[in-house]
Amino acid sequence: MRRLLLLTMLALSCAWIAPLAGSPAWAACDPAPGPLAGDLKQADVAFTGKVVSRQKGVAGGPTTVTVTVDRVYRGRVESEVTVLTPATAADCGLRDVQVGADWLLVGTSSPSGVLVESDEGSRIANAAVIRQVRQVLGVGKKPIVVEPSATPPAPQYTKEADDGPTKFWPLAMPGAAIAVAGLVVLAAARALGRPKDSRT
C-alpha cells in the first residue's frame, strides 16, 4: 500500500513538472521555414518585392521593413508596403534582411502593415522559389498603385505695372474743363440777357 502511494505521488509530480520544464521548448520559434506549399495555402498575403529600408524597433519592438512590391500572389497589397517582423530570431523575426535583396514575404495583413514571421514561409526570393510559388498560387498580379494625393496649385500673383504715383493734373483736367465751360455759358447768358441801351 505504501509503495503504491509513493508511485502515485511520483507519477503526479512528474505529470505536473514535465509541462513546466518543457514549456520554453514548446514556446520557442522554429526559425526553419516549413513546406512552402503549405504556408502559401494558409497565407493571408503573399508577395515578392525588394527591400528598400530596414529599421530596428525601440525597446524590443518589431523591426520595420519597407518593401517595394513586384508581384502579388495572394491578398491586396500596395506597390510599397510596410512589413513588421519580431526583433529577434527567437521570436520568429526575419533574419538576414538586407537592403536591396529580393524577398518572398508571407504573412498577415493589418492596419499598421503586413505582419511577417520566419516560420510562415517568408524567404529570399530566387528562381526556384518563384517557380514554386507560381505552381501553388499562379502567376500573380501587379500590386495596387496608390496615386499621390492631388495638391492644389500654388496661387499665382501677377505684378501690376508700377507707373509711380498718380499725378494730379490728369485727374483734375476734366473737372477744370467743365468748370471753364460753365463760366463761359454763364457769361454768354448774362451778355444776352442784358437790356440794350435806349439812348439815341
Structural overview:
35% of the residues lie in helices and 22% in strands. With 200 residues, it is an alpha+beta fold. The chain has a domain at 36-137: Beta Barrel (OB fold (Dihydrolipoamide Acetyltransferase, E2P)). The chain is rod-shaped and about 125 Å long. The chain starts with a helix and ends in a 7-residue tail after the last helix.
Helix/strand layout:
Layout: H1 2-27, H2 36-42, E1 45-55, E2 63-74, E3 80-85, E4 102-110, E5 113-115, E6 123-124, H3 127-137, H4 168-193
Parallel strand pairs: 3-5
Antiparallel strand pairs: 1-2, 1-4, 2-3, 4-5, 4-6
Count of strand segments: 6
Which strand-content bin applies to the residues? 15-25%
Named CATH architecture of one domain: Beta Barrel
Form type: rod-shaped
What is the terminal separation in angstroms?
A: 179 Å
pLDDT under 50 segments (min length 5)?
A: 1-27
CATH topology (level 3) name of one domain: OB fold (Dihydrolipoamide Acetyltransferase, E2P)
In N-to-C order, the SSE pattern is HHEEEEEEHH
What keywords describe this structure?
5-stranded mixed beta barrel; about 20% strand; rod-shaped; 4 helices; about 200 residues; OB fold (Dihydrolipoamide Acetyltransferase, E2P); disordered N terminus; alpha+beta
In short:
Helix content is about 35%, strand content about 20%.
